[in-house]
Design brief:
With 150 residues, the chain is an alpha+beta fold. It has helices at 2-24, 50-55, 59-76, 78-88, 127-130; strands at residues 30-35, 39-45, 94-100, 105-111. The chain is built from 5 helices and 4 strands. The longest helix is centred in the first third of the chain and has 23 residues, at 2-24.
Length: 150
């Protein structure tokens, strides 16, 4: 099952990367996918544009960025939900997005009625205990060059 979860995580990471690029015109620096019992969390690291990062320097600007990304996700997440079902074979019953403007991290949580609390840590866990799956294979950005996300 672990290899199957890894393959699914890579596929979901690729889809989430494409989804973010199509919605915003800006690809994240990296994507992390974590499975729980009935929860899937996708974290898009470095997902904000340079203009959004500048706007997020003030409290009012950060609040605006957070609300913008929540609304954007709420109004356009159906294709991502369908891809998650295609990859995992499981329906997505709920989905939410949260943005950390200071770091440019966007978190998408897909659950089946569970409360999800996401904590962005100051440093990374060692890979042997993290339970995360990244980076995924190189993707082609809109410009046509090859970028390895890390």
């Amino acid at each position: 099952m672990e290899k199957n979860k890894t393959t699914m995580a890579h596929q979901i990471a690729e889809v989430a990367n494409r989804f973010q690029l199509q919605r915003t015109g800006h690809a994240p620096q990296s994507v992390t996918v974590v499975f729980g019992e009935d929860t899937l969390v996708i974290t898009l690291h470095g997902a904000l544009s340079s203009a959004e990062r500048v706007l997020a320097r003030t409290a009012a600007g950060a609040a605006l960025i957070q609300e913008y990304h929540r609304q954007l996700f709420a109004g356009s997440s159906d294709p991502l939900r369908m891809e998650i079902k295609r990859i995992t074979g499981i329906d997505v019953s709920e989905a939410a997005a949260e943005v950390e403007p200071a770091t440019g991290t966007v978190v998408h949580a897909f659950t089946t009625g569970t409360m999800v609390q996401v904590f962005h840590l100051a440093t990374r866990f060692p890979p042997e205990i993290s339970g995360r799956f990244e980076p995924y294979p190189p993707v082609l950005p809109a410009s046509g060059g090859t970028t390895l996300l890390n």
